[in-house]
Amino acid sequence: MALRTPLHAAHLRHGARMVEFAGWDMPVQYAGLIEEHEAVRGAVGLFDVSHMGEVVFRGPRALAALQAIFTNDLSRVADGQAQYGCLCRENGGIVDDVVIYRRSAEDLLVCVNAANRQKDFEWLKSHASGADVRNESDDWAQVALQGPKALAVLKKLTATDLDAIKTYRHAPGTVAGITCLIARTGYTGEDGFELFCPAAQAEKLWDALMAAGKPEGIQPAGLGCRDTLRLEMAYRLYGSDMDDDASPLEAGLAWVVKFDKGDFIGRAALQKQKEQGLSRKLVGFQLTEPGIARHGHPVVHDGRAVGVVTSGTRSPSLKTSIGLAYVPPALAAEGSALAVEIRGKPVAAVVVKTPFLSRKGS
Amino acid sequence: MTIPDDLKYTKDHEWARPKGARVLVGITDFAQDQLGDVVFVELPAVGDEVKKGESFGVVESTKAVSELFAPISGKVVEVNDPLVEAPENINEDPYEEGWMIAIEPSDPKELTELLDAKAYKAHVDEQG
């Protein structure tokens, strides 16, 4: 039996089609994927992301402990800021990609992927280095209010100065009378907020947001459009685009690896990989012939399999077929001609710049 | 969900509509609803032979790929080409604008082996 978030009943009420994702019974769509996608790009959508996990590091050793296992540099962010990065193994393979919310040097919340909740907690716990590490995943619900109208909707429900919470910043606050962590983060490429609230308050918060957003045309948004929205931005999805065998350098996440910050798990292996050169790189591509590339399709060049598609979809915003694939570095440059083998037939593709879709501020 | 009385159906959720010497083929309302927004369709060419129960094409929604199975055997005599540019017609009007191919049957008897509306409805209810 799949796990249920505190918002399960709300999804059924909204007529969601439910699917199992990472062990969770989650809404894949309500009104329809494309309609929801367009609502988020054009107005505002509300996602249940309570399946994500929350692990909290507390105490005088909290910051140092995380610095020793996180590829990005938490000393460069102020209290009230968030930072994206990877947890790596000694060999450089990615345990997970996470967002860390620094509330203070002694209180940091690590938001982890649903599929990795247990794996991450065990990994983090075993590298606690004297910090107090707690798995608070079951205590929290999380909703993502995303889209150009998200700010206007949330303003109706809170006295917190939202304009002061810039992108990738966060603050404690009250929304519709419910104590939340209000974070200006997301996974869609749009402006928006992720609200962490106590699990028992989730449905009340959801209903308040849906009601407040009615004039703006708010729509409940499912995992289906969450995937097309993130892929248009070329945001990586753990489990599809990377796993324990991929390094952040291969996955195109070198920008979150800070070699100069001091030692961290995986640093030596990544340094070596950087010096010796990569054998594969994750790139964005667009099909130039009809078709849709999917996870697992081979990438071919000169009649030879040279790589693999990790994510692919028809982009609802661009009306083109886009995807991410691992290819040899020699074929990773923008403009490189490739083919994706779809049902045994090569379909022409070209490596393109990412994000596929340009947004304000991105 | 609509299941027109005058059509024949497969358990794979295709419909067949005899029209003169030809049979039009598409997917059912149930099938399009299950798929979600259809964004790509791959159909055979005019002149291709299709065989009952075998794949004659593919429909893809943003999330899923689904093969199309021929309800009867025969020669493809017309293809609904506008679907390639407007695959959403399959969602919006699966029984009319969303038709996919016209087949000239090689064995008209095969039509009588398909499900009628009542039997198809029972089949869908079982799945639901």
Description:
- Chain A has about 350 residues and is of the alpha+beta class.
- Chain A has helices at about 10-15, 35-40, 60-65, 115-125, 150-155, 200-210, 225-230, 265-275; strands at about 15-20, 25-30, 45-50, 55-60, 80-90, 95-105, 105-110, 130-135, 140-145, 170-175, 180-185, 190-200, 220, 280-285, 300, 305-315, 320-325, 335-340, 345-350.
- The mean pLDDT of chain A is about 95.
- Chain B has a single domain (about 20-125), classed as Beta Barrel (OB fold (Dihydrolipoamide Acetyltransferase, E2P)), CATH 2.40.50.100.
- Chain B has a six-stranded antiparallel β-sheet. In chain B, strands 4-6-7 form a three-stranded antiparallel β-sheet.
- In chain B, β2 and β3 form a beta hairpin.
- The radius of gyration of chain B is 13 Å and the shape is globular.
- The model of chain B has no long low-confidence stretch (mean pLDDT about 95).
- The interface of A and B includes residues 292 and 314 of A.
Q: What keyword list fits this structure?
A:
heterodimer, A: about 350 residues, alpha+beta, Gyrase A, domain 2, Alpha-Beta Plaits, Elongation Factor Tu (Ef-tu), domain 3, 6-stranded mixed β-sheet, 6-stranded antiparallel β-barrel, globular, B: about 130 residues, OB fold (Dihydrolipoamide Acetyltransferase, E2P), 3-stranded antiparallel β-sheet, 5 helices
